[in-house]
From TrEMBL:
The name this protein goes by in its record: Aminotransferase class V-fold PLP-dependent enzyme
InterPro entries: Aminotrans_V_dom, PyrdxlP-dep_Trfase, PyrdxlP-dep_Trfase_major, PyrdxlP-dep_Trfase_small
Source organism (scientific name): Parasedimentitalea huanghaiensis
Aminotransferase class V domain mapped to chain residues: 26-404
GO molecular function, one term: transaminase activity
Record key words, sorted: Aminotransferase, Pyridoxal phosphate, Transferase
Length: 418
């Protein structure tokens, strides 16, 4: 069903995002979302009142250490981790995946196998693929070119007793479909391997529950999830203790998570995580959620999904009605199983030229391969500038979708069928 009005209180939502005072319609959120006011205020608070190194006995240093722990606890709430020490902060998902691959390397011996989804962002491919030089066998889990789905039968055909790790995305930043991660985890664990999930394209859209899914490693970027440029890696505590340290030699095996944060994390950005979770809890309460902060956060994501379903359905309906557009991925949002990250190509139009033309209408989108180059090449979509991508979140509106569709008609000289 295509909704006729927004499904979330946009007055409440947009009041929390200073950047939305701009006239731009930000449809490039999978590249980076707007930062919520509470996160900005936490950064300012830290730099104003707690801006010292942790580890000292004096009050300000203790306050700095408390801010870092508060950030870990906030991400514990967001991910439903068992303990705050299971939260590792890093510069980006790319950096954290590289740290994880380096920290796991000694767990592999020549002939061991890592299986990677071909549809993953390069962040969850490159660090593992480079382990080939140590004799590790890397296999690629293919995507079905007709359905754009990953099939467990294909994974089963790849796995052997030497398979130690499977790397996969929760949502592709091109295809937009939510993968059944709990099913993948059970499948992989039943065959004696571990699993590493890139959650960057999932985390802004749905609640995370690493314990319910039993996932081993789960990584995402807060700058695509309403925060500043920082990222989070969850890992089961026992698994983190087994990893090789990436910091100084005297950071022992059990110094978790510090041994995986070389040079220490960015304190003020870690503290900003508190502001993100506080906003989500406030949104959940505004939408009728009660109880714990976690319960309110879950209520927020229920409301977020309703709004995003409306956005997704509105745009897909328009694109389906055009005779010059080919969507890369599912063309329908069945069972709320698609996030509003939608890639497509327009017949007779270079993706880059179309994207730049959209600038004149105050609508921010992007084109290319989005660092998911192997998938784009596998699908033979790398010609004419790659794909056009519209990526929305809950603060986007149906009116903005209509603006985009009208601008698309003006730029292409073609319109959707009635």
């Amino acid at each position: 069903m295509t909704e006729t009005k927004d499904q979330i209180d946009q007055t409440f939502v947009q009041s929390h995002f200073p950047g939305l005072k701009s006239d731009w319609a930000f449809f490039d959120n999978a590249g980076g979302s707007q930062t919520v006011l509470g996160a900005i205020e936490k950064v300012t608070e830290f730099l104003t009142h707690r801006d010292v190194q942790i580890g000292g006995s004096y009050d300000v240093s203790l306050a700095a250490a408390a801010a870092l722990m508060d950030g870990r606890r906030a991400m514990q709430t967001m991910t439903n981790a068992a303990r705050p020490e299971e939260i590792v902060f890093g510069h980006s998902t790319t950096a954290l995946m590289q740290i994880l691959a380096n920290a796991m390397r000694s767990q592999f011996v020549p002939g061991d196998e890592i299986i990677i989804s071909i549809a993953d962002h390069e962040s969850n491919i490159g660090p593992w693929d480079r382990l080939r030089e140590f004799g590790i066998v890397v296999k690629f889990w293919p995507v079905d070119k007709e359905t754009y789905a990953l099939q467990l039968d294909d994974l089963d055909a790849l796995m052997t007793e030497r398979t130690k790790l499977v790397c996969v995305h929760h949502v592709s930043n091109i295809l937009g479909q939510v993968n059944p991660i709990a099913d993948y985890v059970k499948f992989v664990h039943d065959r004696g391997a571990k699993i590493c999930v890139d959650a960057v394209a999932y985390a802004p859209h749905r609640a995370i529950d690493v314990q319910a899914w039993d996932v081993d490693y789960y990584v995402f970027s807060l700058y695509k999830c309403y925060g500043p440029h920082v990222a989070v890696m969850y890992g089961k505590y026992d698994l983190l203790t087994e990893l090789d340290g990436q910091y100084h030699y005297f950071y022992g095996k059990d110094k978790v998570p510090g041994k995986l944060e070389p040079g220490n994390p960015n304190y003020e950005l870690a503290f900003s995580a508190v502001g993100i979770v506080e906003y989500l809890a406030a949104l959940g309460e505004h939408e009728g959620g009660t109880g714990s902060q976690r319960n309110k956060l879950e209520a927020a994501f229920v409301a977020i999904a309703k709004q995003e379903d409306a956005l997704t359905n509105r745009l897909l309906a328009n694109l389906r009605g055009r005779n010059d557009v080919r969507v890369i991925g599912a063309t329908c949002n069945i069972g709320s199983n698609r996030v509003p990250t939608i890639a497509f190509k327009i017949d007779g139009h270079h993706s880059g030229e179309f994207t730049k033309a959209m600038d004149e209408y105050g609508i921010a989108i992007r084109f290319g391969d989005f660092h998911t180059r192997r998938l784009i090449e596998e699908l033979d979509e790398d010609e004419d500038g790659g794909v056009i991508r519209v990526s929305m979140v809950h603060y986007n509106t149906l009116e903005q979708v209509d603006r985009f569709c009208a601008a698309m008609t003006a730029i292409t000289g073609n319109c959707a069928a009635a």
